[in-house]
TrEMBL record:
Organism for this UniProt entry: Novosphingobium piscinae
Protein name, as recorded: Signal recognition particle receptor FtsY
Sequence ranges assigned to domain Signal recognition particle SRP54 helical bundle in this UniProt record: 18-97
Family: Belongs to the GTP-binding SRP family. FtsY subfamily.
Residues annotated as domain SRP54-type proteins GTP-binding: 112-313
Record bears the keyword Cell membrane: yes
Gene, per the UniProt record: ftsY
Length: 315
C-alpha cells in the first residue's frame, strides 16, 4: 500500500452495530438515570427514582423492583456517580438476562430439526426466518424453509424471495392451502435430503385464537406422525416497538402454541429495548437472538452482558 492510498474503511463490528441499533434504548435509560448522583449512600428517594427510571424505560415493574432491591443491598456506602449507578444497573440487568440467553442450536437427531416460527403479522417473522437461515448457513448447515403461512399470498411470495436470495430450498403451496400438508411434505423432503434445519413460517392470526390454535394443533399432529419429537422449537418473533404489548403476545402465544423461545426484532427502531428485560424477568423463556436491522447479518445470538451494558447506557 502506498502512502497516499486511503486505508480500507473497516466495516462496523457487530458490537458497534448493536450499540448503534440500540442507541435509542440506551439513551432512554441513560437520560432517565441522569442526575441521580449521591455523595453519601443511596437513600430511599434515590432508589425510588432509579426504580421509576427503570419502569419508564420499559423494564417492567418486576425487574425494576428486583434491581432496586439489589442496589439497596449495595447502597454505595461512599456515594455513587451516574456512571457507577449505570454500571451497577448493567450488572443487575445482565443477571436477569444471562439465564435466558440461549442460541438456537441444531442438536436434534434424526434430522431435520423442525423450527416453527410464530408471531403476529408485521412482527418481522419472515425476515427473521431468512436471517435464521443465513445464520445456520454460516455454520455450514443445510436449511429448508416451509411456507406454512398460506393465509396470505404475499407471505408465501416474500419467503420465496428470501429463499431464492439465500439459495435455500422452499416447500410451498397455493394461497389458502393446508399448512399442515405443506409441513408434512417439507418434513418428508428434508428427511430424505438430510437437511439440518427446517424452518416453518406460520400464519399470525392472533385475533382469531381458535383458528390459530386449531391450525397449530394440526401442524403438530402431522409433524408428530413423521417425527414424534417435532416441532423441536416453537420460536415466537416479537416486535420490540410494541413495548409492553409484546409481553401480552408472549402470554397468549405461550398458551395457544407452547412457545419454547423468543426472538425480539426491530430493537434498532425503538427506545423500548428494555422490554427484553421485562420479558426475561416475567417469563424466563429462552431468548435466542435479537434483530437490530433489516439486513441478513442483523440477527445475532443474544449476548446478555453486552446487551445489558447497552441498555444501561454504559459503553
Ligand atoms: N428496523 C428493523 N426492521 C425489521 C427488523 N426485522 C424485520 N424488519 C422489517 O419489518 C417489516 C416486517 O417484517 P416481515 O418479516 O415482513 O414481518 P412478518 O411478521 O413476516 O409480517 P408479514 O409479512 O406481514 O406476515 C419489514 O419491512 C422488515 O424489513 C429489524 O430487526 N429491524
Amino acid at each position: 500500500m502506498t502512502a497516499d492510498t486511503p486505508p480500507p474503511t473497516a466495516a462496523p463490528s457487530w458490537t458497534d452495530r448493536l450499540f448503534g441499533g440500540l442507541r435509542k434504548t440506551s439513551e432512554r435509560l441513560g437520560e432517565n438515570l441522569s442526575g441521580i448522583v449521591s455523595k453519601t449512600r443511596l437513600d430511599d428517594n434515590q432508589l425510588d427514582d432509579i426504580e421509576d427510571a427503570l419502569i419508564l424505560s420499559d423494564l417492567g415493574p418486576r425487574a425494576a423492583a428486583r434491581i432496586r432491591a439489589r442496589l439497596a443491598e449495595e447502597r454505595f456506602e461512599r456515594g455513587a456517580d451516574e456512571q457507577a449507578i449505570k454500571e451497577a444497573v448493567a450488572k443487575e440487568i445482565a443477571a436477569i438476562l444471562r439465564p435466558v440467553a440461549r442460541p438456537l442450536e441444531l442438536t436434534a437427531f434424526p434430522r431435520p430439526q423442525v423450527i416453527l416460527v410464530i408471531g403476529v403479522n408485521g412482527s418481522g417473522k419472515t425476515t427473521t426466518i431468512a436471517k435464521l437461515g443465513h445464520l445456520f448457513q454460516e455454520q455450514d448447515y443445510a436449511v429448508m424453509f416451509a411456507a406454512g403461512d398460506t393465509f396470505r399470498a404475499a407471505a408465501i411470495g416474500q419467503l420465496g424471495i428470501w429463499a431464492e436470495r439465500l439459495g435455500v430450498p422452499i416447500v410451498k403451496g397455493p394461497e389458502g392451502g393446508d399448512p399442515a400438508s405443506i409441513v408434512f411434505d417439507a418434513v418428508k423432503l428434508a428427511t430424505e435430503r438430510g437437511t439440518d434445519a427446517l424452518v416453518v413460517d406460520t400464519a399470525g392470526r392472533l385475533h382469531n385464537r381458535r383458528e390459530l390454535m386449531d391450525e397449530l394443533a394440526k401442524i403438530r399432529r402431522v409433524l408428530g406422525r413423521l417425527n414424534p419429537a417435532a416441532p423441536h422449537d416453537v420460536v415466537l418473533v416479537l416486535d420490540a416497538t410494541n413495548g409492553q404489548n409484546a409481553l401480552q403476545q408472549i402470554e397468549i402465544f405461550r398458551e395457544v402454541a407452547g412457545v419454547t423461545g423468543l426472538v425480539m426484532t426491530k430493537l434498532d427502531g425503538t427506545a423500548r429495548g428494555g422490554v427484553l428485560v421485562a420479558a426475561a424477568e416475567q417469563f424466563g423463556l429462552p431468548i435466542h437472538a435479537i434483530g437490530v436491522g433489516e439486513k441478513m447479518d442483523d440477527l445475532r445470538p443474544f449476548d446478555p452482558d453486552l446487551v445489558a451494558r447497552v441498555i444501561a447506557g454504559v459503553a
